């Protein structure tokens, strides 16, 4: 791509573009500009890839191989939040073929009390212990298949570079000395900073662990209370700090992720009017952000070398994008129901002959893949083709492993 430098095969170009002047589906012809992915500290970078100086060939050391085999366990050990999902173990544990991360059902993340009573510490709770040795000991107990040398190195890097880890460490003493304190973890957003240029918080911008009296300000925050399992709260993956909290050593410098106010190129940060649509949008959508973020470019990205953890990140991103689209449909039903006739027909299609549920259900548009309208349209298109060209000569089915 001549705009963002993403690498493609020529046949991956947009169909309407030519081979002489190809256009690709990465940055919308330069209208999407994101900060470059910062390389991790050298110690951490060597775990992802080790490059031979003589040949330039990317290879893995023995230590790197051990790290990659258990990379999802290392991520869980250092993550600030848990992942709740039913993973297809049969597919993930196959001895032959490539590793595949496949999830079923709901996909959610939870961040709990800092010091739950009568339970071992885990996730964000580990960052409030006095010393790094204590933290390492608790991680070794929770995750027994980790290499202590690798864990110690990752822990040292995060303590040195990650602003959220530093915020926890700076406020740990306050948590231990005051049993009644209630704390709040969040980001103090600087309205003067454009996220296309500045995408990581500094230590002063992380309003982590701010004492609060419990009075809400209307915004959704990640609440971390001192005691009690009842303090558990789901972490909204739409928050821009979610990626660095869930995948801390993929974003070891605390880089921030997508935000709904992220402007397109040519528009002023926070001042651009919110318009939607392929041709009139002034904001970068979540799907566009991840599409740009995960492209292969000449500058090697450690995230694309994360193996099994990359698969989890991609599935996580896909679920988050679908969830945000569904939330939009839920809250914009009036704009999407062009007439009461459409709601009536949907009710009748659902065998609600009396029509008692008309106007109560959430209607998904045909633009959402897998929705009843999209499936019905696809069926009608198939029938129209058969009506015009005649019945098919062969009906072939096959099964393909993922």
UniProtKB/TrEMBL annotation:
Domain Helitron helicase-like: 289-402
InterPro entries the UniProt entry points to: Helitron_helicase-like
Name the UniProt record assigns to this protein: Helitron helicase-like domain-containing protein
